[in-house]
C-alpha cells in the first residue's frame, strides 16, 4: 500500500471517529434536555393540581373562620403568582410565598376544632399533602436532570458540541430561600 492510501485511510477513520463523537455527544445532550423538559412538565402538572385544590380548601376554612380575611387574601395572591409564573425562578419565588400562606391557613384551622374535624377539610388537607409530596419528588427529578445536563454542557468535549448547537445550562428549581428558612412564617390572630 502506498503512503498516500494509508494517510487517506487514517484520515477517513479519524473523521468517522470525530463524527461519531459529535453525534453521540449531541444525542446525549438532546436526551438530557428532553428529560429536564419532561421533569418540568411533571412539576407544572402537580402545581396545577395544587392550585386547583386551594380554592376548595380556602372555602372550607372560610366557612369557620370568616374574619381571617388577610390570610385568605395572601393565599389567593400566592396562588395567582404560581399560575402566572413564567420562569423557574419566578415559580420558585411564588412557591415560597404560597408555602408561607398555606402555613398561615393551616395555623388558622388549628384555632377551630370543628373545622379540624370536618371530613371535607381533612380530605382536602390530605390531598394537598399528597400533592406536596409529588411536587417534592418531581422537583428532585427535575433538579437531577438539570444537574446532569449542566454537567454535560460544562465538561469536555461535550462543552464544544453544546456550544456549537446552542445548548444552554438550565436553572435549578430551589424553592426555599435563606430568608424563609431562617425566619419562619409569623402567624398573628
TrEMBL record:
Keywords: Membrane, Transmembrane, Transmembrane helix. The keyword Membrane applies. It is found in: Membrane. Gene3D superfamilies: LemA-like domain. Its main location: membrane. Transmembrane segments: none annotated. InterPro entries: LemA-like_dom_sf, MamQ_LemA. It comes from the Bacteria. GO terms for cellular component: membrane. This is LemA family protein. It comes from Candidatus Minimicrobia vallesae.
Amino acid at each position: 500500500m502506498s503512503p498516500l492510501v494509508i494517510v487517506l485511510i487514517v484520515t477517513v477513520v479519524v473523521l468517522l471517529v470525530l463524527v461519531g463523537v459529535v453525534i453521540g455527544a449531541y444525542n446525549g445532550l438532546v436526551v438530557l434536555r428532553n428529560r429536564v423538559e419532561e421533569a418540568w412538565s411533571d412539576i407544572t402538572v402537580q402545581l396545577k393540581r395544587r392550585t386547583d385544590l386551594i380554592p376548595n380548601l380556602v372555602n372550607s376554612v372560610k366557612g369557620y373562620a370568616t374574619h381571617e380575611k388577610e390570610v385568605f387574601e395572601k393565599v389567593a395572591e400566592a396562588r395567582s403568582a404560581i399560575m402566572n409564573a413564567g420562569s423557574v425562578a419566578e415559580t420558585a419565588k411564588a412557591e415560597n410565598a404560597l408555602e408561607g400562606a398555606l402555613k398561615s391557613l393551616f395555623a388558622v384551622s388549628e384555632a377551630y376544632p370543628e373545622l379540624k374535624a370536618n371530613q371535607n377539610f381533612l380530605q382536602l388537607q390530605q390531598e394537598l399533602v399528597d400533592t406536596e409530596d409529588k411536587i417534592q419528588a418531581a422537583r428532585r427529578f427535575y433538579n437531577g436532570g438539570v444537574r446532569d445536563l449542566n454537567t454535560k454542557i460544562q465538561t469536555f468535549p461535550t462543552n464544544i458540541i453544546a456550544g456549537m448547537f446552542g445548548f444552554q445550562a438550565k436553572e435549578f428549581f430551589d424553592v426555599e430561600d435563606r430568608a424563609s428558612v431562617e425566619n419562619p412564617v409569623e402567624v398573628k390572630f
